[in-house]
């Protein structure tokens, strides 16, 4: 059993609820540093549409895992887990209080629970695999798995589509073989001691915050940011360029929709995404929930109690 595990506070909540503000407040009060767990803020040049911390906020509190890859570089839950775990261990050895601010629940899950337990079904990937099966047949899907992860394939019957699909899904999500992850998990202990803090807000107020945030992004120059990315040679079909905000502005720049339609689609899709996020988060019984703007002192007191001897 691993002794003296690194301790970290995890700040969770739907998009636009104010997670960054809470994380920065905790870090400033307790002398902590922040690790980003947002799957888009890892990319360079995507600043406005990802709501990255401002230059002032970055100066006030040290942030990690922001602007670490180019938009056309691979980044997934497995890479995040490796990078985040290394950063956590380094900060812990340096005696720092660690706050993980998470916009991507999948990243938090795989970091705290391990890749196998932390990976929920990904419907988009599963639909793509089903299309391959419908076009080329089940033997083709099994052959793909045999090439990617022969050890996993050897444990799965060629006609067992469900298990073959899951093994491929895990590989696509993490960039790692399911057989290796399963072997690793057999000897794995919990790596960290953590406290999950959830930030909530009345549904209608959250919708208003999303509208305000999108308008602010447009005012700050989101269209220009996307234009610059295109000029730099980053195509519209890249994963980050297909995320909410960037996808719609790309459609506008391509002439597929007008400007007002693009803005309304960003607002609509962001609200839908926030609703899905809350559905996932509400299932996590480890999260201690607080309402935004009402409990900053309570959150800080809880954080101080959790870090204890580090303060």
Written overview of the protein:
It is a single chain. This protein has helices at residues 19-30, 55-60, 77-93, 105-113, 115-118, 123-136, 138-148, 150-154, 161-174, 178-186, 203-220, 222-231, 246-253, 259-282, 296-307; strands spanning 7-12, 32-36, 63-64, 97-101, 193-200, 287-291. It is an alpha/beta fold and 311 residues long. It has two domains: 7-114 and 188-310, Rossmann fold (3-Layer(aba) Sandwich), CATH 3.40.50.300; 123-185, Histone, subunit A, CATH 1.10.20.140. The protein has a six-stranded parallel beta sheet, with helices on both faces. It is globular. The model has no long low-confidence stretch (mean pLDDT 91).
Spell out the key features of this protein.
alpha/beta, Rossmann fold, six-stranded parallel beta sheet, Histone, subunit A, 6 strands
Quick structural gist:
With 311 residues, this protein is α/β, with parallel strands linked by helices. The chain has helices at residues 19-30, 55-60, 77-93, 105-113, 115-118, 123-136, 138-148, 150-154, 161-174, 178-186, 203-220, 222-231, 246-253, 259-282, 296-307, and strands at 7-12, 32-36, 63-64, 97-101, 193-200, 287-291.
Here the CATH topology of the largest domain equals Rossmann fold
Number of domains: 2
CATH superfamily of the largest domain: P-loop containing nucleotide triphosphate hydrolases
For the largest sheet, list the strands in their spatial order: 3-2-4-1-5-6
Helix content: 55-70%
**Beta-strand residue fraction:** 5-15%
- Give the N-terminus to C-terminus distance in angstroms: 25 Å
Number of strands: 6
State the major sheet.
6 strands, parallel
* Average pLDDT metric: 91
């Amino acid at each position: 059993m691993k002794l003296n595990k690194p301790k970290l506070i995890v700040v969770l909540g739907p998009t636009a609820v104010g997670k960054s503000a809470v994380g920065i407040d905790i870090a400033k009060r307790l002398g902590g540093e922040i690790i980003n767990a947002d799957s888009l803020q890892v990319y360079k040049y995507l600043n406005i549409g990802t709501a990255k911390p401002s230059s002032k906020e970055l100066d006030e509190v040290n942030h990690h895992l922001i602007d670490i890859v180019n938009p056309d570089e691979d980044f997934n839950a497995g890479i995040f887990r490796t990078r985040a775990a290394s950063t956590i261990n380094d900060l812990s050895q340096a005696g720092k209080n660690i706050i993980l601010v998470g916009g991507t629940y999948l990243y938090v899950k795989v970091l705290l629970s391990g890749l196998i337990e932390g990976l929920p079904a990904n419907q988009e990937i599963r639909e793509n695999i089903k299309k391959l099966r419908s076009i080329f047949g089940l033997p083709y899907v099994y052959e793909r798995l045999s090439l990617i992860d022969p050890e996993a394939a050897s444990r799965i019957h060629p006609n067992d589509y469900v298990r073959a699909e899951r093994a491929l899904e895990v590989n696509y999500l993490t960039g790692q073989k399911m057989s290796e992850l399963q072997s690793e998990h057999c000897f794995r202990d919990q790596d960290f001691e953590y406290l999950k803090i959830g930030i909530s807000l009345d549904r209608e107020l959250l919708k208003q915050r999303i509208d305000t945030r999108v308008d602010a992004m447009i005012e700050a120059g989101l269209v220009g940011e996307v234009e610059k990315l295109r000029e730099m040679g980053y195509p519209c079909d890249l994963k980050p360029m297909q995320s909410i905000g960037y996808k719609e502005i790309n459609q506008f720049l391509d002439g597929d929709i007008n400007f007002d339609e693009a803005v309304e689609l960003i607002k609509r899709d962001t609200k839908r995404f926030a609703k899905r996020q809350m559905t996932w988060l509400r299932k996590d019984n480890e999260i201690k929930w607080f309402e935004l703007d009402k409990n900053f002192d309570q959150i800080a007191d809880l954080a101080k109690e959790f870090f204890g001897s580090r303060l």
